Amino acid sequence: MSCHEEKKKSIVFIIFGILLSIVLVAFTGALIYQIYKLQVLPDKILIPGILAIILFGLILLLVLNFCTHGIISKIIYSFLVIAICIVYGFGNFYLYSTSKTLTTVTAQSNKAKNTVSVIAMNSSSMEDVKSLEGAKLGVLTNIGKESTEKSLKDIKKNKVTYTKSDYDNVPSLIKALYDGEVDAVVLNEAYRSNVCDIEEYANFNNETKVIHKTVYYTKENSSPLAVSDITAKPFNILISGNDSFGSLDENSRSDVDMLVTINPVTSTILLTSIPRDSYVTEVCDDYACNYGVTDKLTHTGMYGVDTTKDTIENLLDIEINYVYRVNFTSMINIVDALGGVDVTVPEGMAVSKFYTNSNLEGVHEGENHLDGKRALAYSRERKAYLDGDVQRARNQQQVLQAMFKKATSPEIIKNYVNLLNALIGAFDTNMTTDEITSFIKYQIQASPKWKFEQFVLKGDNDLRVSPELGSEVSVVILYDSYISIAHDKIQAVLDGKSSDTVEAQEDTPAGTLSEEEIEAQIQYGLMTEAPSEEEGSEIYYGN
C-alpha cells in the first residue's frame, strides 16, 4: 500500500473518530441531563455516577483519538464507542419515558367529564337528535338536575321541540321507558350501572340505544394536603377505584375505597378498607353533591373523587393528604405489565369460578399466579364468600400488596418499559412529580423493609332508601366501634406506632358459599345474576 493511500486512510479515520466523539459527547450529555432531571437517585449515588460517566467518556475519547495507531485497534475502539452510544441511547429513552410518565400521571386537568344520554328502546325508530322532534322525554326531577338541564338545553339548540314527563327516581324513570309511557329518557351515564343492578333491567345495555349525547365538564378541587417531606413525614392516601372500563376522566361509582397510611420513618403501611355499600353521610365542597344526606359510599364517586374523599374524612375524622384514582382497565394493564402477581389463598377460601367473570379460572388454596383479568376478578369477587364485601376488601388489599412487592423488586427491570406504558393514563393523582420522585429516591437509598398491616370496617346488612336512586337498596350499616377503631389505627401509624397496638376483634375469613348455596340465593331473590358487558356475568345483591 502506497504512502498516499496510508495517509488517506489515516485522514478518514481521524474524521470518523472526530464525528464519533461528537456523537459520544452528545449522548453522554443527554444521559447526564436526563439522570439529573429525573432526580430519583440519592446524592451519594448521583454524583459519583455522573462523575464516572464523564470519566469513562473522556477515557474513550482519549484512547480513540490519541492512543490507537493501527487500523485494527481503531476499528475495535470505534465499535466499542458505537456500542456505548447505543447503550446511552437506550438509557436516554428509558429515563425520558420515566420522566414523561411521571409528568403525565401528575398533570391533573382538575376537570371531570360528565356524559348525559338520551336513551330509547331498541325497537324505537328514533336514531338521532332530530328524530326527537315531538317526542315525550322522561326526566329526573329530584336528582341529577344539572345534567338533565344541560341535556335538554343541548336538544333545544338543535331546534327540536318535545314534551317531558317528570320522575322522582331512577327505577320509576326506567320503568316508564320500558312500559312505553315515554319515548326516551334523559340519563346521566353515571347512573347506568345502577340501572343494570336492578333485576328487571339487568339487560338494559343490550335492550336500549343512545339517541344523543351531551358532554360537559365539572371542576374538581382535589388540592393535596401536602406534607412537608414525603420521605420523613407520615401521610394518608385515598385509593378510589371506579367501577368502569376505559378513560379515567369520567365520574362513576366508587367501587374500591381504600386508605393507605404510610409512615416512612417506621416503614409501616396500613391498608384500611371501607365497604362500598357503607351507608354514610355525603360531604362535599360547594354543595356539589346531595350534601348531608345518607347514601351508599359508592354513589359519592358519581360526584367526583373529591366528594368520596370529603365523605371518608368526615366518616373517620381524619385528613387525607393525597388521592389516587384508578379503574378496571388500569388494574388489568398494570398487573399484566408487572408480569402478573402472586397471591396466597387461605384454606377454605378457594373459588372454583369467579362470579364477576365466569369465563375465568378461579383460585385454589395456596399460591396462585394471576394475570390482569384474574387479579381484577379476584379483587371484585364477593358473591362466593360468606363475608361478601369484607372478604372482597381483604382480596383487594392482598392484590395491592402483591403489586407493591413486584414493583419494588429487581425483577421489575425486565418489565420496565411495559410498566411505563401501562402507567400512562392508568391513574390520576394530586401528588406532584417531585413528591413521587422523592419517594422513589428514598426507596432506592434506604431500601426500607415495609411492614404491611390491614383493617377492614364491618357492619350489618340492611335495606335503606338511597337518595340517588329514590328507592330502597341493600346497604351496610357500619359498626360505630369499627369506625372508632379505624380512626385509632390510622392515628397510631401516623404517630409512629403499629396499628396492632389498637385492639380490635379478630378479623378472619368466614369461608365461601357453594355453587348450590349461590343458586339458592338467586332462586329466593337474595341475589340476582346480571350479564356484564365487559366482564361476563356478575351476581348482585340488590343495588
Automatic annotation (TrEMBL):
The Cell envelope-related transcriptional attenuator domain, residue ranges: 253-408
SUPFAM superfamilies, per database record: Periplasmic binding protein-like II
Domain of life: Bacteria
TM region positions: 12-33, 45-64, 76-96
InterPro entries according to UniProt: LytR/CpsA/Psr_CW_biosynth (IPR050922), LytR_CpsA_psr (IPR004474)
Pfam families, per the entry: LytR_cpsA_psr
Entry keywords, A to Z: Membrane, Transmembrane, Transmembrane helix
UniProt similarity note: Belongs to the LytR/CpsA/Psr (LCP) family.
Protein name, UniProt field: Cell envelope-related transcriptional attenuator domain-containing protein
Species of provenance: Holdemanella biformis
